[in-house]
Design brief:
- By secondary structure, the protein is α/β, with parallel strands linked by helices.
- It has a domain of about 100 residues.
- It is about 25% helix and about 30% strand.
- It has three helices and eight strands, in the order ααββαββββββ.
- The strands form two sheets. Strands 1, 2, 3, 4, 5 and 6 form a six-stranded mixed beta sheet that branches. A two-stranded antiparallel sheet has the order 7-8.
């Protein structure tokens, strides 16, 4: 009986000791960053700081495991804003006006290849004066949208029912 109690106490202690020794040999840092997400890291090492200072742009790593920029896939075009305006107006009515406000320059880095891009605010104004806007990344060379826009303004042009004293609901016409 005493042997069973001793074995029951020694087995968990032995397992804890073996796990401790294994972790001591192969220390693993927890992977807090998912490989599939676009992440801008808050904690950057010296090399990343030097790269950001060199480019004067925010670097967004699409694959956090590889943080070296080996080559760029595009070049900055000085006319990127005109090209972006033409691309954004392509499917709009001829009377629509577009206003582009550049917010910041960014570099998308994935597996050592980098792409220059611009984060912009786009505002459309139609003939009746309604304004809708959104944010988007555009390529610094071609002016084409990269990815999907976000922060879209939803314009609802609805007339609301009027309830007179008689209790009959009538639709307001403009």
């Amino acid at each position: 009986m005493k042997r069973k109690i001793i074995y029951l106490l020694l087995i968990p202690l032995l397992l804890v000791y073996l796990i401790y020794q294994e972790n001591k040999k192969n220390p693993q840092k927890p992977n807090l960053i998912s490989e599939n997400k676009s992440v801008k890291t808050d904690i950057a090492n010296d090399q990343e700081d030097k790269q950001e200072k060199k480019f004067k742009r925010t670097i967004i790593y699409l694959s956090p495991s590889n943080k070296k920029i080996l080559s760029f896939t595009n070049k900055k075009n000085e006319r990127w804003m005109d090209l972006a305006q033409d691309n954004l107006l392509r499917f709009q009515e001829p009377t629509t006006k577009v206003k582009i406000v550049p917010l910041e320059g960014v570099i998308f880095s994935q597996n050592g290849k980098a792409k220059l891009a611009e984060k912009i605010l786009v505002s459309y104004t139609n003939q009746s004066g309604l304004v809708s806007s959104f944010n988007v990344y555009v390529d610094s060379e071609t002016g084409k949208m990269i990815g999907l826009p976000w922060n879209r303004t939803v314009v609802e042009n609805k007339s609301f029912p009027r309830i007179p004293a008689s209790g009959i609901i009538k639709q307001i016409k403009k």
